[in-house]
Amino acid sequence: MKYKIGSCKNCRAENVRLVQSHIIPEFLCRDGRDLKDKRYEADYASNKWRVIQSGIKERFLCDLCEKKFGEVDRYASKVFKLSGPNDPQIKIEPMGENPDINTKLERWTGIDFKKCQRFVFSVLQRMSLSGLDKPEPLLYSDELTKMLDIYRDEKGLDDSTYPILISRLTAGTNFQTGAVAPVRLTAEGDNALKMNLLCLASVHFRGGGYLFQAVIKVIRASMDYRLAIEHFKLRSNGQIVIADQPFTNTLLFQVSVAMSRGLQGPNQR
Ligand SMILES: [Zn+2]
């Protein structure tokens, strides 16, 4: 059967045809298709990582909702390209580099903040609504509700409840491309103390050569940490500081390594 009948998890319409939806939008998977680097995606249903060809899909949205998410993706697909943004509104200003840590900083201006925020939030919503975020929920219901309120409000620009950080993965390194479905990472106890935090929760996903991060909860952060978020976050005036970094430097990579021990390769199925 090509489709199934059920309730749409987004608009709650009942007895509707549910179409197959990507969790990570297809445009973020496409850029990596021709490269040697294999694409992995966290498969929450089996709590394993698997090699994917075209991304994890699930039937949980009606046709109308799937189209709405597609519209949200359209803007992001122009901005987050492996070769850089394809939008004349966006200006890029180099901010120097640090060769020791292989990092280059750029300030991007002219981003449509609302569209960009909706895109990042929509990927998190798709993950939450799909029910694939097991065993741990990606967003708890109060977080999802608050995020949906921000998502739906066209006027109240809010860049601080769930700050969004975006980095570009260094070209020419392993793992520049590939997609990883949203994963919730928390730092508590010793790890959090190292960062001068009581608790940090953030959601990370990557695709198309970019790493997207939404900070969900920060409890008792040092001034340095708060300043770092202020410096790097996507701002409501359409500005963001983007750092180029190797994927191996990121928290998501550390988790990926741990999870990939349970990876099902094509030969092990
Ligand atoms: Zn719907």
Task: Describe what you observe in this structure.
It is globular, with a radius of gyration of 18 Å. The protein is an alpha+beta fold and 269 residues long. 29% of the residues lie in helices and 29% in strands. The strands form three sheets. A seven-stranded mixed β-sheet has the order 6-7-12-8-11-10-9, with helices on both faces. The chain contains seven helices and twelve strands. The site of zinc ion has 8 residues, from strand 5 and helix 2.
- Biggest sheet features: 7 strands, mixed
Radius of gyration: 18 Å
Number of domains: 1
The chain-level mean pLDDT equals 83
Q: How many DSSP H or I helices?
A: 7
**Overall spatial form:** globular
Q: Which cofactor or ligand species appear?
A: zinc ion
The secondary-structure class comes to alpha+beta
Ends apart, CA distance between termini: 24 Å
